[in-house]
């Protein structure tokens, strides 16, 4: 019940133990097509370029940045926690001139300051973290995406923690580039990063002045492997793709709306139970994540020993606070398979014992 990896369904683990086939085997090629089709359904997009990058969520972040940014490009990044900061750092390493729009940790990025940062600028890209796992805040995307488009910029979204746990509507919101990760609300082990590029984003990557500095993450090369050409690029992690195939099948079997509802209801049940223990959430009211709950540690409580006892006595892992929230919050994940009423009860009962 930490910030990920979340629990994984037995059928996903079983899929991973299936015998290996080659990465250009017809069986695997068919599976690749199904993974792309299922990812489009989960991202709610028609984008042709939609596939899992080999690597964790940070590889997806790098994939988007290395393909879309060239040295000297202007980029605006919203930062309200660890991962917005990481995105700005990656963009800078690609040579971007980054304008940082900061919000206090635990709060969302409001459209106002983003509009201010865009005034008089013509950035190539605007980047935002949808669900900030370090703080438990969910920033609304549509208005900021609209402003980015009006400014002529590509809109890049980090959907690592949001995908599969709450609405992520890539086409409807006008997102040009999005990356996620398998180990959060998709409930698959860590190791793949689903990504999607709009036609606009792909055109930007195709018409670059300079070569993409990462050979491994170059969309132009990866598209030839994941597209109809099937040109060997790298050896796809076969077992991870088996796992993702099964995890996506489970997501769609449940149905996106049912899955979002389950995450919301379990979050509300946890929040209510925490209130009876005299505990509240640290993130902004009205914008709290359903899948990651940052619980404020009461003054005088030994944050570390409660966390250690939850693990050693109750077999429950919860996350610690990061950065300015270090020592101030516990991060309770209710992601994917982990989001169940039984787990909510279990963690509340265990917390009650530890706090007493
Ligand atoms: N972005 C967000 C919002 C995350 O929560 C994480 C990881 O927790 C990442 C990016 C990086 O993903 P990974 O750790 O899979 O590389």
Q: What's the count of strands?
A: 12
The percentage helix is 40-55%
Strand content: 5-15%
| Gyration radius, rounded | 20 Å
Give the class-level CATH name of the largest domain: Alpha Beta
**Low-pLDDT segments:** none
Quote the CATH topology of the largest domain: Aspartate Aminotransferase, domain 2
Give a short account of the largest sheet: 7 strands, mixed
The secondary structure category is alpha/beta
The averaged pLDDT comes out at 97
Task: Going across the biggest sheet, name each strand in turn.
Answer: 1-9-8-7-4-2-3
Cofactors, ions and other ligands in the entry: pyridoxal-5'-phosphate
Specify the CATH architecture of the largest domain.
Answer: 3-Layer(aba) Sandwich
> Tally the helices: what do you get?
13
CATH superfamily of the largest domain: Type I PLP-dependent aspartate aminotransferase-like (Major domain)
Gist?
The chain has 356 residues and is α/β, with parallel strands linked by helices. It is built from 13 helices and 12 strands.
How would you describe this protein?
By secondary structure, the protein is α/β, with parallel strands linked by helices. The chain folds into two domains: 10-253, Aspartate Aminotransferase, domain 2; 256-355, Aspartate Aminotransferase, domain 1 (Alpha-Beta Complex), CATH 3.90.1150. It has helices spanning 10-16, 26-43, 57-68, 82-93, 111-118, 142-150, 170-173, 199-206, 219-226, 238-254, 256-276, 303-314, 341-355; strands spanning 49-54, 74-79, 97-102, 125-129, 131-132, 137-138, 154-158, 177-179, 192-197, 292-296, 319-320, 329-333. The strands form three sheets. The protein has a seven-stranded mixed β-sheet with strand order 1-9-8-7-4-2-3, with helices on both faces. Strands 10-12-11 form a three-stranded antiparallel β-sheet, covered by helices on one side. Strands 5-6 form a two-stranded antiparallel ribbon. It is globular. The chain starts with 9 loop residues before the first helix and ends with a helix. Bound molecules: pyridoxal-5'-phosphate. The site of pyridoxal-5'-phosphate has 14 residues, from α3.
